[in-house]
Amino acid sequence: MLEISRILTAAGATLAGVGFTVYGIGYSVRDGGEWEAMIGGWATIIGLIAFVVGMVIHHRLAED
After folding, report:
1. How far, in Å, CA of 46 to CA of 50, rounded?
2. What's this model's pTM, rounded to 2 decimal places?
3. Any idea what the Cα angle at residue 21 is, between residues 34 and 13, rounded to 5°?
4. Closest to 55 measured CA to CA, from 7, 15, 20
5. Region of residue 32 (left: phi > 0; alpha: psi -120 to 50; beta: else)
6. Among 8, 34, 35, 46, which residue's CB has the most CB atoms within a 10 Å radius?
């Protein structure tokens, strides 16, 4: 379970970073870019949630 929490933490941080980048690209595009901003926003939110959940699981398991 400790390995899963580490993978979840790393994947969440990566997804949040990539989502934030895609979100920025979506808003910098002049014509359109609505779907890039929407996907980037959702990826950022999901990545942050996964990161926080992974960190909480890791700290709970590390205390034992």
Report:
1. 6
2. 0.87
3. 125
4. 7
5. left
6. 8
- Secondary structure, 3-state, 1-64: CHHHHHHHHHHHHHHHHHHHHHHHHHHHCCCCCHHHHHHHHHHHHHHHHHHHHHHHHHHHHHHC
Listed residue (31, 30, 51, 47) closest to 39, CA to CA: 47
Which structure tokens are listed for 6?
A: 């580490």
Rounded distance between C-alpha atoms, residue 49 and residue 20, angstroms:
14
Residue-wise pLDDT for 9-32, tens only, equals: 999 999 999 999 999 998 888 676
Angle between helices 34-63 and 2-28 (to 10 degrees): 160
DSSP at 11: H
Q: Is-contact 23 40, C-beta < 8 A?
A: yes
